[in-house]
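ok so for the tutorial part 2 we go from a plain amino acid sequence to predicted structure tokens. step 1 is just haveing the sequence, like this:
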Amino acid sequence: MASKYYVVWAGRETGIFTSWPQTKALVDGFAGARYKSFKTQAEAEAAFKGGQSKAGSARSASYKANSTASSTRSKPTSGASSQKSTSEHPDSDIDIYTDGGCEPNPGEAGSGLALYRQGELAELWYGLYHPMGTNNTAELNALHQALLMAKHYLQQGLGVHIHSDSQYAIKCISVWAYGWKANGWRRKTGEIANLSVIQEAHALYDSLKAKLKLSHVAAHVGIEGNELADRMSIYTLETKQAQFCRYQEPLDIPALLALRAG
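step 2 — the prediction. this is what the tokens look like for a chain of 262 residues:
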């Protein structure tokens, strides 16, 4: 008897499966993938017969399945990683996706964030509009906000993983900043762009890095958290929201993904 049954409502193939690696291959990188794990075959069969409505009511069931069902996932490691994330699914108590948008670049800029608790979408944030910003600034601002939230949750003893699609932002605060700081916050080739937010974000990162996981995630490949953070950054440009504030509308994932992308 299988220890887990995986229902795939939307993926490269649909049905009920008993192998997590097989299920993962069917849904990873598949835009709009919907799946969930069940303890018994009867539950899985009933859920599969329920069709898309069952998947929709689970509110991003795919993320819950991955956070609870994969027996092969290793525990999050501390520190930053510049490698591309190989999984599109949250793997900690708190997973935070960040993104920045700018149209054109430089031009109107804003930041977005998607926060998951135990694999379920819990909050969306947007704001920090600037009429003449850059994409790099918007990415750094989003990452800074994520670090502020991470500090709060880490103090509660929860595991936190921040996912950013900006290699620039990640390296600024977790790699390059150490050299810049040792050199009096100067670089041989000239001034450091976005210095103020880099200094603040780096100080936060440095104080949290022993417990925090920070990694790069591929952009615009159908990863839900990344896509939602992107939608929030563009929503900022449309609302011109200067403060960073929580999105108050219902967290209807299909409707949110239908918003204009950056």
